[in-house]
Amino acid sequence: MKKTGFIIAALVSSAHAFAGGYLTNTNQNAAFGRNLSQEAKIDITSTYANPAGIAFLDKGWHLALSNQSAWQTRTVESTFGDGLFSLGTVNGVANQGATKTFKGKAVAPSIPSFDLAYVQDKWSLSLHFAIGGGGGKCTFDDGLGSFESQVAMLPALANALMPGSVSGYSFDTYMKGRQYYFSTQLVGTYKVTNALSLAAGVRMVNASCAYEGYVKNIGLNVGGQVVPASQLLTTAGLGALAPMVADRVLDCSQSGTGFTPILGIDWRINEHWNVAAKYEFRTHLRLKNTTATVTDESGNVTELNAGMEEYNNGNKLAADVPAILMMGAQYTPIEAVRLNAGAHVFFDKQATQHSSRHEKLDGPGWEILAGAEWDINDIFTVSAGWQNTNYGLGKNSEFITDMSFVTNSNSVGVGARIHVSKKIALDISYFKTLYSHYKREQADYNHVKAGMAAKVAPIAAQLTAAAAQLQPAAQAGDPMAIAALTDIQQKGQMLQTVSSSMATFNTEGSDNFTRTNDVFGIGLLVDF
């Protein structure tokens, strides 16, 4: 049952709603949605992607306000064992078939951003605020396969002790997560020459996350009646295993602050070509738990940490934001047309994550991007862009789980800029991501067999130790010691039966991951 806490808390990545690395949103305003390659653009809306380019804006103040709305689904089609999911009933609804579809919904109706720059002859200063990671909420109304597989094992384990007695399982579950990484960036830019500028600055990342959920009422179908799993284990003489099937509840929020050093360069080669690059260093970030408690009638206080010590109140979890290298070029064949191309490299394997999750990546993540803009006239500019995102997952990657996953994708964006006047303009955009399917097959689905063996082993060791203590007295003829030793031996035999059953139990499984993502944006630009 250890997975319960992981499932809920790992929604930290489930809320991820935008393009970019697994912890980074590169889509930070409506302008991105209409032209995905921003790396070498010279525009107030490129303060994030090309801060060095701010030096080449007209002198004075420049302001951009933006809001985006995102809708995303996360779908996992899972199989486990010999059709075990077909035996389940979740939240009162019977599963249909051996393959079960788990769907999470993430909604972010308002994702704001803000850019402000002051430009002088040599020096410029820019301020950027956005949601640099996460950006929404995700809800799994019917749980996830990584946990349900553990419940789905119970009928087979119970039948190993009482052959043919259990025909199915049931439980109630609900999981919800929210994640926002608020990013405030301050960058200074110096124009070395009329063609070359350098930038340096820092971003402050304030993480605010919250997770809530439960797994309750785990039961087994015995003769057409649902019997609490803990009761059945106790009746079978394995009450020591009953805590494994107890109700679990999580109500935990997390917060943390980190800082990201930033360097940038922009080179206007000539009237047709502009090239730029930016490097963001790794953000050292630790998330501190604030976990709710409940007090029973006897005054006993229990933390709602789903039984997981790592979610105890006050604990800190590693959640570094990876370093990023962004490079790009803009080609202007004629004054009214701009063509853009760019590339991103995410140094994910060097960003420390809880439980060393980052070490399970096969390599860095990367993206290639392209975009084009056309000034139809003095009022309307139309644009479109494309982005290909790849994660260093490798085959059958353990970096991803049904709790938190990314898949390679292609994204497209279209939109327009409407010049209301010489000083005011509007951006509108629509951005859609087309995710590929990623199928992962496992000989031991989510390490279910290994996890169960790890739970049984210490109980067996305790019984062995108790038997050794009683042995001398039992050999001496003490009737109480003999009775206690006999009871321990019977329980030990039952555990041995469970372990033997587990050794031959089919725990093969597969997950087929995919997602959907739609983002609408609108922005206001003002020069003054």
Describe the model.
The chain has 528 residues and is of the alpha+beta class. It has a single domain, classed as Beta Barrel (Porin), CATH 2.40.160.60. The chain has helices at 3-9, 11-14, 30-34, 145-152, 154-161, 229-235, 448-475, 479-504, and strands spanning 60-80, 88-90, 93-94, 100-119, 123-140, 166-191, 196-222, 225-228, 248-268, 273-280, 286-291, 293-295, 301-303, 316-318, 323-334, 337-347, 365-375, 380-390, 409-419, 424-435, 438-442, 509-527. The strands form two sheets. It has a 14-stranded antiparallel beta barrel with strand order 1-4-5-6-7-9-10-15-16-17-18-19-20-22, surrounded by four helices. Strands 12-13 form a two-stranded antiparallel ribbon. Strand 15 and strand 16 (337-347) form a beta hairpin. Helix 5 crosses helix 8 and helix 7 runs antiparallel to helix 8 (479-504). The longest helix is centred in the last third of the chain and has 28 residues, at 448-475. Residues 1-18 have low confidence and may be disordered.
